[in-house]
Amino acid sequence: MVPLNFRKMGEGKPLLILHGLFGSLDNWVTLGRRWSEDYAVYLLDLRNHGKSPHTDSHTIEDMVDDLVGFIHDHNLDQPVLLGHSMGGKVVMEMALSHPELVGGVIIVDISPRAYERGHDYIFEGIRSLDMDQISSRQEIEEILSQSIKNLSEVLFMSKNINRSSSGFSWKINVDVLERDYENIIAPIDSGRTYQGPALLIKGELSRYVKPVDGTLLEEYFPKIKHITIQGAGHWVHADRPDEFEHVVRHFMEDL
User: With contact defined as beta carbons under 8 Å apart, do 49 and 19 qualify?
Assistant: First the structure.
C-alpha cells in the first residue's frame, strides 16, 4: 500500500474519482469542481501516475490495496467510486473484494473481460524520446507524433512530462507500467457479485464496451444500470462533459 496524492473539493457524500492508464487527477478537475458543489469530491492519482509514488509493481490488486488504505486513512463512509478505463477496473475489483467499504460504483467505458494489447504504440513513442537530449515540449510532441498519430493522444501524453531546471522527466513510471501491462488488461475474476448500486457509462463511439459486455457486467453487478452517451468515444467525460456531469449527478441523487 502507498499513500496516494489527491485533491479534495467540496463537502458531503464522498465521491472518489480514479483516472485511466497514463492519466492523472488533473484530467478530472473541471468536472470535480462542478460535483463539489454538492459532494465531497476526491480526485486521486493512482500509483505510478501523477504525483503519487512510483513503485516496483502495478497490478489491479495493488491499486485496490492503495484505495482501501486511502478510505481508511480519510475515514470515509462508503464512498461512491467512479473509475474510467483502468480506474474502472480498480473500482470493479474494489467493490467485489471489499463491498462493505463501497457505497456505489460508476464504471466508465470498460468491461471486466480481458482486453487485447492496445497501447504498444504509446510505449513505442515513449521509448523514442531521449529525455537527456530534449530541448522543448514542442520537440517532445513532434517525436511522439511519429508513433502516436492521434494529436489529442500526443497532447495527453505530453502532459505526463515534468520540466525542471535539470530538464524533462516522465511523471509516470514507464518501466513498471510497460512490464505489468498484461495485468492491467487481464480479466476481473468472476464468481463474485456486488449487490450495491452500480452504473455503466459508455461512449456511443467507443469500442471498449460491446453489447455482450452489458450482460457480463450484470453477472458481477446485478443492479447495474446502463447509460450510453451519444457522440462520445472512450474519453466520455472529455467528449461530452455536460452530459456526463448530469448522468453522474443523477446517479448520486438517487442513492
Answer: yes
